[in-house]
Amino acid sequence: MPLKKHHKIMIGSLSSFLVILLIANSIFLYVLYGQLQINYSKLNTNINELKIDTQSKFNELTENVMETQQDVTNLNMQLGSINEEFSTLGEQFSKLKSSVGEDFSSIIENAVKSVVTIKTDVGQGTGFIITNDGYVVTNAHVLSGGRIVQAMDYEQTIIQASFIGYNNDLDIALLKIPGTHERFRLADSDDIQIGEKVIAIGNPLGLQFSVSQGIVSAVHRPGPNELKAYIQTDAALNPGSSGGPLINTDGKVIGINNFKIGTGESLGFALESNFIKEAVNEITKQAFGETLV
């Protein structure tokens, strides 16, 4: 049955309306998509700008941190330099006190703890400790003829000593006592100055841990071995002082008291510390295959 005219008009109108609606919807979606694209582009732009700004601030912060670290390093160096200056001033002040006649009590109080009396079955002398594990230096002639060697420390404790070796030319012997001990450091005897004050510690005539004060009268004096290796000092040396340390105002050993000229006054001689070191290392190299000091 054919459509009536008004039916055709209604269908045509509805179709037209749907077409128009689709077109309008398409236009709306296109506009919306375009707007979304614009917003997305703006968002990307903002993100990129934020990244650039963040990176710039991060770089600035990194530079500030590095500058701060450098400032801290410089400050630590300055503090270290100041501490060194204070330490140097302290050492200079201590030396000044000693040089102008202030007492040596603080130096002696520490030094005697590293000195020992050496006793054999035929005599006695002095020795001093050069390592914390108990290596002791004395004169070889102190041990001559003895079969038993003992050391007595400042606390009057008798300690059995082991003989390690000796250097006859330099009159040096090396012993070892058990335990842990305070020790002397050997100074560089090339730095000794004529006229500087020194202290000799020994057991003259059996008077244990006696201390005498003097000055360096000369250096590189020839000894019985014809080596120019001896310090001349006016510090009192007597039988029993042999093997004891001759120390400077820093409390370091500059020589080992060795002999005196009996016909003169205040003419004592000590083997210079660099030769002590040479002799000790020669002894331990022969005994153990290695040097000690």
- Summed over residues and divided by their number, the pLDDT gives a mean of 84
Say how many strands there are. Answer: 13
Uncertain segments are 96-102
Percent helix among the residues?
40-55%
* Number of alpha- plus pi-helical segments: 4
Largest sheet: 7 strands, antiparallel
CATH fold call of the domain at 189-288: Thrombin, subunit H
CATH superfamily of the domain at 189-288: Trypsin-like serine proteases
SSE order, one letter for each helix or strand: HHEEEHEEEEEEEEEEH
Multimerization state: single chain
Classified by CATH, the class of the domain at 189-288 is Mainly Beta
Structural class: alpha+beta
Radius of gyration: 46 Å
What would the principal axes of the Cα set say about the shape?
rod-shaped
**Spatial strand arrangement across the major sheet:** 5-4-1-2-3-7-6
The CATH architecture of the domain at 189-288 is Beta Barrel
